[in-house]
Structure to design on (429 residues):
């Protein structure tokens, strides 16, 4: 029989957060190994439950969830989202400018499918949340990655953005707060990106799913609140702020210069109609969540669990020789750097697999976030303090062994010094 192959549209689509290393971890778990998972930002398995108020409201209204809703979503839920955009100072948003989706992931794919023709380009941050790059490629476009500079706290490099714009560029993606770096963009940076979009007639796609997961008294500014003469597509949802990832309740908000985007908006509405509607039980949670007690504030406060775990993760990582990290201002992740002079890694996916096999700790390599060099990895700090402590103890041990394998001891001017030998680390699989 002739082999049945996947579509060529998937040739440039990659999502290593749930990739081959995770498959290996699952196989190890089936063999009885306990894996400490620092790979996926899914709060529920680590004891972060959805607020009881939200859960009870969904249960009480479940008898009304059997039928389809309007393709854009429940009126009450969209009304609550509209009020939230007003709190964020985003002007001119109406009920019809809001589409509820099965999580932000579905809406990102829809937004790219509705916009892009083959050969179109979208500017995506490097590092990025890889769904953005995958969605652009799946829609027939090309993701061009602009640099976020670690030396400036992972802020977007505006000159690099400008330099990568071509006649085929259609939009700029902002992930703010940023996954995987934890960066939070100041108003000046956002205004600079708006000016670039204004000058080149580009759409700004703003992924703001972590806009309430803020540490150290920081505040979040929605880029769409800063102008009304650029088209903004802003994405948000309940999954992180309210620990309801499984509810798949996300939304897309259209704002700014809508007059010249009627055809694109018609395309978004068409795709929303084709999938009939988002899941209704998840929609039932939105009004209560946005209007209720914001329990995330307790978790990110200096005495809160998330803040304490972030601080522990940051300290234990940066205490390891050759490991540096920008302390995250927001989100659930750290994106530490391994000094290439001390850790001469050639294949970061193999490096992460070796760590899994030797120490039973699961991370995601930096290249999984479209970072250009094999010198970073992403850490999720959702596990409790005891599990985090154990995980970083294992990581430190693995890196200590790595350093020993890749260095020889010489004497320079009577002092011990390490002369590094650049060779790949290959643990026995």
């Amino acid at each position: 029989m002739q082999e049945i192959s996947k579509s060529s549209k998937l040739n440039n689509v990659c999502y290593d957060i749930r990739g081959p290393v995770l498959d290996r971890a699952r196989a190890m778990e089936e063999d009885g190994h306990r894996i400490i998972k620092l790979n996926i930002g899914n709060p529920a398995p680590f004891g972060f439950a959805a607020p009881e108020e939200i859960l009870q409201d969904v249960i009480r209204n479940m008898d009304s969830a059997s039928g389809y809703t309007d393709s854009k979503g429940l009126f009450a839920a969209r009304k609550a989202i509209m009020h939230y955009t007003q709190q964020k100072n985003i002007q001119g948003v109406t009920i019809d400018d809001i589409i509820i989706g099965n999580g932000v992931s579905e809406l990102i794919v829809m937004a790219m499918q509705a916009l892009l023709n083959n050969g179109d380009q979208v500017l995506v941050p490097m590092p990025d949340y890889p769904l953005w790059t995958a969605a652009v490629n799946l829609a027939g476009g090309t993701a061009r990655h602009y640099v976020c500079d670690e030396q400036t706290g992972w802020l977007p490099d505006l000159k690099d953005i400008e330099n990568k714009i071509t006649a085929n560029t259609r939009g700029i993606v902002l992930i703010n707060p940023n996954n995987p770096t934890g960066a939070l963009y100041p108003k000046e940076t956002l205004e600079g990106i708006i000016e670039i979009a204004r000058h080149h007639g580009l759409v700004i796609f703003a992924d703001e799913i972590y806009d309430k997961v803020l540490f150290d008294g920081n505040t979040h500014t929605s880029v769409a609140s800063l102008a009304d003469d650029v088209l903004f597509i802003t994405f948000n949802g309940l999954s992180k702020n309210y620990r309801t990832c499984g509810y798949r309740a996300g939304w897309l908000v259209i704002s700014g210069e809508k007059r010249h985007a009627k055809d694109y908006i018609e395309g978004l509405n068409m795709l929303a109609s084709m999938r009939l509607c988002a899941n209704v039980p998840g929609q039932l949670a939105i009004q209560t969540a946005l209007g209720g007690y914001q329990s995330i504030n307790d978790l990110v406060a200096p005495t809160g669990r998330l803040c304490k775990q972030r601080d522990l993760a940051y300290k234990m990582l940066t205490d390891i020789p050759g490991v540096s990290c920008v302390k995250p201002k927001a989100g659930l992740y750290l994106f530490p750097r391994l000094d290439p002079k001390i850790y001469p890694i050639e294949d970061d996916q193999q490096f992460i697999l070796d760590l899994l096999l030797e120490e039973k700790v699961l991370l995601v390599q930096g290249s999984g976030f479209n970072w250009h060099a094999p010198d970073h990895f992403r850490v999720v700090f959702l596990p409790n303090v005891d599990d985090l402590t154990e995980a970083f103890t294992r990581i430190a041990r693995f890196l200590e062994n790595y350093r020993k394998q890749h260095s020889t001891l010489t004497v320079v001017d009577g002092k011990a010094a390490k002369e590094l030998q650049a060779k790949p680390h290959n643990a026995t699989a």
Notes: The radius of gyration is 22 Å. Residues 409-429 have pLDDT under 50 and may be disordered. The longest helix spans residues 385-405.
